[in-house]
Amino acid sequence: MTRRSFLAFLTLSGFSLVSGCSTVNLPKDSLVLSLGSDPVTLNPILASDSASLSVIDFLFNGIIRVDEDQKIQPDLAESIKILNNGLVYRIVLRKDVYFHDGVRLTADDVVFTYEKILDPKTNTVRRSDMVVDNVPIKVIKVDNFTLDFVLPGVFSPFISNLGIGILPKHILENQDINTSDFNRMPIGTGPFIMKKWQVADKILLESNKRYYRGKPLLNSLIMKIIPDSSSQVFSYETGDIDMVDLRPKDVAWIKEDPTSTVVSYPIKAYTYLGFNLKNRLFEDRNVRVAIAHAIDKDALVKAVLMGYGGVLNYPTCPLDWSYPEGLWYPEYNPEKADEILDSAGWKRGSNGLRYKNNQPFRFTCLIRQGSKDREMAGVIIQQYLEKRGIKMDLVTLEWSSLLQRLTSEKKDFDATIMGWGLGIDPDPYGIWYSKEYPNGFNLNGYNNPEVDRLIILGRQTIDQEKRKKIYRKVYKIIVQDQPYVFLWYPKSIVAYRNWVKGLSKPNPSGLIVYPERIYVERIRG
């Protein structure tokens, strides 16, 4: 999963761009953005949340990058050659790339970065990107600017996994990478340099004058920490930020503002109601299917997205080439939901709540605080389930607290409304492969041996049409198992002030694919 694709969403805490009409106190050569929360870490191989990745993307470069047409392009690589029938990837690095401290990037830094990913002591969820059939990929230095990735077998998603930011060996080689101060004040090769981080307030980045693509046109980036989406819109309206992600209900009035431009575009992401499959309530597949039958997703999505997105029934979105058509899924059918729950032993009590072995069907659903769309969806789903005798309590948590509950080995949650951003390659290993639980992205403990087998087969298959057939089988089984109730795929809606120039054309990677090209012609007064 590339940095930008992952940014598209492990979530609710995506970053919004922002500044407003009254710009007297804002520097002319700065862009002011917002973050939904403080980052967890600014080390690219440790990060797994969108707030962290949003900042990291300005600070680091990978071997490859994804352009605004969703094509893979070399970044730190000068060239990439595939040798030995796809088992060797030879990378020749650019010779004009320097870390922010002035030290030149070499093959040693790339080898160090990927060896740290493979090191079992490193707290990273990216190790599966470097393992084929349980055998680690070898990273071999050929000379100072050339290295080989040697694969133990064919691995079709491999090149799309080379977007991770490269770390400076000379700084980190004698440090504990999990606890280093570097993770808060990192040194990368990217277009901007980390200058200051004031927790719960803002992050300040300054331009990298030695950036290999040329000095950025902006002198600085200011990223304000604004956890609530409504507060972000208010900050945009009052002139504190230059760009903002909009909720559908906010589009009409902002479109009337002559100083703003509003754009909408599809993104490779989806939102779901996910169950902790280790919880006794959700061990039974039939119960999960019944819950899916109980939710009118058409009405839900119409209410929440207001046309900016669509109903989703599968574990991928329509932008992905692997998207299936015509698979069975549990349609809205409350009578069927009641029938399944009755058959599973969940009988209604006199108070209308369902019980089994004298235990009520009651659980807690976690949602990120400030994510108004998902909060709204939670209330609607709560009402649908209550009609079926199921009590769902909603709990909103600050992002880092929610992430801790979901990703800790304890997996301290019953259910959650969350989302995934999808990569250039549809490889579903990280989310659905059984061994990615509990320390990977398989947050809910899904385990199906046939899905595991097919995922590995998909990784070993080069032909795209054959892979598509394999993934169709994967999706069919997952939908039948219903570890998630798949809810919707969204469109991103972004407003920005007309003085923000140099943005990318609207595309699934967002409007800031090339940060070094952005500049502002700020209005004063």
TrEMBL record:
Belongs to the bacterial solute-binding protein 5 family. GO terms for molecular function: peptide transmembrane transporter activity. Keywords: Signal, Transport. Residues 71-433 form the Solute-binding protein family domain. The keyword Membrane does not apply. It comes from the Bacteria. It comes from Thermodesulfobium acidiphilum. One of its GO terms (cellular component) is outer membrane-bounded periplasmic space. This is Peptide/nickel transport system substrate-binding protein. One of its GO terms (biological process) is peptide transport. The keyword Transport applies. InterPro entries: Peptide/Ni-bd, SBP_5, SBP_5_dom.
